[in-house]
Amino acid sequence: MTSGRKLMLLVERISGIVLPERELQRLTNWALDRAAARGFKDLNAYVDALRRDPDSDEWRILLSRVTVKESSLFRAPQQFRCLSESIIPELVASGRKSIQVWSAGCARGEEPATVAIVLAECLAGTDVQWSVLGTDVDADALEGARQARFSRRAVRRVPPEHLDRDFTIGGGIYELISGIRRHIEFGSINLVREPLEVPGQPFDVIFLRNVLIYFRKESQARVVRNIEQLLAPDGFLFIGPSESLMHLTPVLQAEERQGVFVYRRREGQEGGAGTGLKDDKTSEFEERDRISKAPPRTETDDEPDPVAADPGALAFEGQRAERKHDFRTALRCYRASLYLQPDLYQVRYRLGRCLEAVGWSGRAGAEFRAVLEILERGSGETLEIFDGPDFPGRDAIEVECREAIRSGSRKNNPQD
Ligand SMILES: C[S@@+](CC[C@H](N)C(=O)[O-])C[C@H]1O[C@@H](n2cnc3c(N)ncnc32)[C@H](O)[C@@H]1O
């Protein structure tokens, strides 16, 4: 096995993060540079040093390189509406004198800042104390988070009244005011490391959004098992709107509130499989199960999981299924493909079209918006199978996405 692949597997062992196959070459090149800069005789020696000391400074640099910190304030705003209109009032009504929220995998602080803005508003004029803990495995991201300074892009979803009231603006940077900032603390926590000990537990609300998607199913289950221990008995767990805990925990169950799913402890059923979890998100998430059902890779495995290795083949399967109007399979394949290579804008566009076809126009809109973001960033990647007279080109996709968003918002179906 090459040293680059050993490094990729070591990253998974330490952080849970499964890097897509296409990252192998880039990671190898990067690691070769690091090994040379640090005076190691070769890549193997560099990887060995990392293996020997999972707490070294080099890991800090490596984790910053391999983690995806895509986030923004008020990402998935419907979840924050649910927090402010349903969950916080319920926690206050329960007689609580203090509320603790944990944002696990908080990137550069966008999520804890949003939670703090919402809590500050909801709890103003009450005597309820509150705090928000933001944690991440990436120490560099946390350093940024502590500054509470955000780009224009990061705040693009912040409602204008909050932007005016809760930020100071200078040089195109939006800084959260200290009155809100002082409620937020940050800490470095690797969610896959056991035992998982988090100061301030139990939490009334935990946000674990868009973190598990990078893990294999075994790691997902382990993390969820550890996290559910840290949730107050009547607490709430948010995961990303396109994620599911299906088959991951018999302890938590999905509950729909204001059109979004939150997870809560299932009463009297602590542990034990086969409890018939209610999770209406089933059909949307089978593809993730399929990817993560692959056995965990070990550093002695020579071949990567063939499914996980080929986003193009998955997109091809998706396209075949779509042509046969088998949208369920198409959705599964497109999502699996995008899991591996999120910036395949043609695949994302097709995913949006399939979601529309099955009546999920709100989710379709989110995909179309994501396509526009990818194109705007200039990070879009193309697949040959979508090049040809039968397919719209880049510009046509952009126009079609804009039009689909416009007509979708007229239908006003934000969450499906
Ligand atoms: C895509 S961001 C999600 C940010 C935010 N939760 C949101 O939904 O906008 C994923 C974050 O998970 C963090 N992460 C990945 N593996 C982790 C681990 N093992 N422990 C803690 N955080 C991890 C990454 O560093 C990154 O900041």
Describe the structure concisely:
The chain is 47% helix and 14% strand. The protein contains 17 helices and ten strands. It has helices at 3-15, 23-37, 43-52, 57-66, 77-93, 110-123, 139-147, 160-166, 178-181, 217-228, 286-292, 306-309, 311-323, 327-340, 345-357, 361-377, 394-411, and strands at residues 98-104, 129-136, 149-150, 167-170, 173-176, 184-188, 203-208, 231-239, 252-257, 260-265.
General description of the model:
- With 416 residues, this protein is α/β, with parallel strands linked by helices.
- It folds into 3 domains: 3-66, Chemotaxis Receptor Methyltransferase Cher, domain 1; 77-278, Rossmann fold (3-Layer(aba) Sandwich); 306-411, Tetratricopeptide repeat domain (Serine Threonine Protein Phosphatase 5, Tetratricopeptide repeat), CATH 1.25.40.
- Helices cover 47% and strands 14% of the residues.
- The protein has 17 helices and 10 strands.
- Helix 11 packs across helix 14 (327-340).
- The structure holds S-adenosylmethionine (SAM).
- S-adenosylmethionine binds at residues 15-17, 67-71, 75, 105-107, 110-111, 136-138, 141, 190-192, 209-211, 214, 240.
User: How many domain units?
Assistant: 3
CATH H-tier superfamily of the largest domain: Vaccinia Virus protein VP39
The end-to-end distance, rounded to whole angstroms, is: 46 Å
Tell me, what is the CATH class of the largest domain?
Answer: Alpha Beta
Q: What do we call the CATH topology of the largest domain? A: Rossmann fold
- Low-pLDDT residue spans: 269-309
Helix content: 40-55%
Estimate what percentage of residues fall within beta strands: 5-15%
In terms of quaternary structure, the protein is single chain
Cα gyration radius (Å): 22 Å
Please report the total strand number as a whole number: 10
Q: Taking all residues together, what is the mean pLDDT?
A: 87
CATH architecture name of the largest domain? 3-Layer(aba) Sandwich
